């Protein structure tokens, strides 16, 4: 991702990120909110790690790309277990954001968006249900109907 830290098209997010077939979800939230836990769940269903806890993002031609800082590449924290090794993808296009600091209260919410480095992304809030991780993966595979 070779841009300097002052580059307005690059940032390091306090976020975890996983990818499925080249489509990535960036998972944001406060420390202890479950970013790594959700990433591990998604990985258990077949997603691949991009980055855990800190995610480098860069905006290119209206798309957002994610990768891991070199010092934490291929590592993910499992609270109560330790730091685990994981084969990571080098970079992936971010197509979805999940905010674990807010909880979804609507059964069928209207589409939400967030902006990262000027790139608009669909946004999902935390869902306190067993289907949350599988639903995120299905979103990565097929998108969402309006």
TrEMBL record:
Specify whether Glycoprotein is a keyword of the entry.
no
What InterPro entries does this protein map onto? Hpr_kin/Pase_C, P-loop_NTPase
Show the Gene3D superfamilies listed in the entry. P-loop containing nucleotide triphosphate hydrolases
An individual GO BP term: regulation of carbohydrate metabolic process
Q: Which Pfam families match?
A: Hpr_kinase_C
Q: Does the keyword Repeat apply?
A: no
Q: Annotated Gene Ontology MF terms?
A: ATP binding; phosphorelay sensor kinase activity
Q: Domain HPr kinase/phosphorylase C-terminal: where?
A: 10-89
Record keywords, A-Z = Kinase, Transferase
What protein name does the entry list? Answer: Hpr(Ser) kinase/phosphatase
Source organism per entry reads Shimia isoporae
């Amino acid at each position: 991702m070779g841009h300097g830290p002052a580059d307005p098209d690059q940032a390091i997010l306090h976020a975890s990120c996983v990818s499925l077939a080249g489509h990535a979800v960036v998972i944001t939230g406060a420390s202890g909110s479950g970013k790594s836990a959700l990433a591990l769940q998604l990985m258990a269903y077949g997603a691949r790690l991009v980055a855990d806890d800190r995610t480098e993002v860069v905006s290119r031609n209206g798309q957002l790309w994610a990768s891991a800082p070199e010092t934490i590449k291929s590592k993910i924290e499992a609270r109560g277990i330790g730091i685990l090794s994981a084969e990571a993808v080098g970079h992936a296009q971010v197509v979805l954001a999940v905010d674990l600091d807010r909880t979804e209260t609507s059964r069928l919410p209207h589409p939400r968006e967030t902006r990262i480095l000027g790139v608009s992304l669909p946004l999902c809030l935390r869902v306190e249900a067993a289907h949350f991780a599988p639903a995120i993966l299905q979103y990565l595979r097929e998108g969402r109907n309006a």
